Amino acid sequence: MVDKRMLILPADVVKKIDDNRGDMSQGEFIGFLIDSQLKQTSNHNGYVTDDALREFERGIKELLRTFLEFVVSYGLELGKQPSKGDLEELSQRLGVMQKSFGTTGKD
Q: What's the pLDDT at 16?
């Protein structure tokens, strides 16, 4: 036999339950709400998955590459020709960035 208990609730809460429970009993509806709330909070524990973090990292790397390409092409459009030393310095900096990201070329 199912053990039953009494729960005292404000009248407006009982009205909300009755207005929204459809064909379920009050007990079934409250149980459903509690279960769905617990499932929802357990799925969103505040942590990021490894795949989501890797995808974010790839997106940031691509954004940086696109930005660098824009900066270089914008400078060329303005007619400012970079000196050989500037290009070598930029290449070295890009190489250092790639090593710090642990990648070579595009992913």
A: 93
